């Protein structure tokens, strides 16, 4: 297996020697350059995995070099080093696309940790690129590879040449309207209108007017004739969402349309004939509503010709990584920012959540992360507070949360760690210690800061570190912590 290639660009010979020695001892393949132009020329033939470059050098300076690299190799991490640690240099570095900014003098361990972070970042991008080339792109934004969703796709395919009525059931937020759109798009009616109407979103006394339209003078304020949704959807598909909320009187009129293909506008006396395919959806148990006398049994049988069940997100957790990647990419594009990347431990945690709001809740979470998280990588502690407090219950295990204390025995925790390591190795991942160590450190640091209410000096004592070590780790792991103004007053 080839070693990771690191390039060091610095006109300071002593700095080049120290970094070369450190990185080689770590098993990395290191090449150093005295000035940036030589490195640029070499890039055309052989690009490294990570570059560390000084800012102020003879010839091409580090920021100019960074800009040229990003134009041609946008995913290549470049770490900027400089002895001139001013705000302008830092801002310019990040604006030009630096992976990280490293002010001199720095701890050599800090530089090494940054390089390993950059390598992990590169590996993640390569895995995502490989996944793009092997995963077929699905249309209509219905995303999923789980067996339950494959059943949905098969049903849509089988109905592609049909005009038959379909009833879609599933919890709120599962994507029922997306399935209705897909049924229309892949039907002989695809060139005709798709009209949607949510029964739960319209006042009951307006539903009939919305569905069937009205004649001029039918009621106070009806100054002109108005088409209803049935006429608007003529030749196409009418999607009636939350059909279980339709008033009983309106159900009778709908039944007549389904039986005869015609209706009367409100206040009208001339029948209007339409050719419309009905796709209905509900999160309710219609059989129960029928038994309670709240839904017409004959209408239920008219609608329930073909039923498609949309599983809740918790029952298709294997689709969460793909869905989240899609939503993060879309949110990033809408907001004009780079898409966030979920850390493996974050994805694992999200796959265990119950997601009561289903796909809609996941989409909203991805939008929140895109707006609120400053870094590119998303860690479990970055998730919204309501998700971090949700207990995760697995068979035979005690409940755990991302924010609370893990209420399991150390022995059990040890077993889970072993299972995690075995799974990673089976998946072909290398250097799993580099993955696990930052996870452990981040968890312990956050716990110590929470215990001490953000007092870094006391947190460092709990961890068995010096305060400088904790400060370095906070920066290295990208953990935000409040300034210790109160502590400084105590010292």
Secondary-structure blueprint of this entry?
Blueprint: E1 5-9, H1 13-25, E2 29-33, H2 36-43, E3 50-54, H3 62-72, E4 78-82, H4 87-96, E5 100-103, H5 108-134, H6 147-158, E6 166-169, H7 176-185, E7 194-198, H8 207-212, H9 229-232, E8 237-241, H10 248-260, E9 262-263, E10 272-273, E11 277-282, H11 286-291, H12 297-303, E12 306-309, H13 320-335, E13 341-342, H14 344-350, H15 358-372, E14 377-378, H16 385-388, H17 410-426, H18 432-451, H19 456-463, H20 467-477, H21 485-490
Helix pairs in contact: 13-15, 18-19, 18-20, 19-20
Q: Your description of this structure?
A:
GO terms for molecular function: ATP binding; phosphorelay response regulator activity; sequence-specific DNA binding. The chain has a five-stranded parallel beta sheet with strand order 2-1-3-4-5, with helices on both faces. It folds into four domains: about 130 residues, Rossmann fold (3-Layer(aba) Sandwich); about 160 residues, P-loop containing nucleotide triphosphate hydrolases (Rossmann fold), CATH 3.40.50; about 90 residues, Helicase, Ruva Protein, domain 3, CATH 1.10.8.60; about 80 residues, Homeodomain-like (Arc Repressor Mutant, subunit A), CATH 1.10.10. It is elongated and about 95 Å long. The chain has about 500 residues and is of the alpha/beta class. α13 packs across α15, α18 crosses α20 and α19 packs across α20. The protein has 21 helices and 14 strands.
Structure, briefly:
With 491 residues, the chain is an alpha/beta fold. It has helices at residues 13-25, 36-43, 62-72, 87-96, 108-134, 147-158, 176-185, 207-212, 229-232, 248-260, 286-291, 297-303, 320-335, 344-350, 358-372, 385-388, 410-426, 432-451, 456-463, 467-477, 485-490; strands spanning 5-9, 29-33, 50-54, 78-82, 100-103, 166-169, 194-198, 237-241, 262-263, 272-273, 277-282, 306-309, 341-342, 377-378. The chain has 4 domains: 5-134, Rossmann fold, CATH 3.40.50; 156-311, 3-Layer(aba) Sandwich (Rossmann fold), CATH 3.40.50.300; 315-408, Helicase, Ruva Protein, domain 3; 413-491, Homeodomain-like (Arc Repressor Mutant, subunit A), CATH 1.10.10.60.
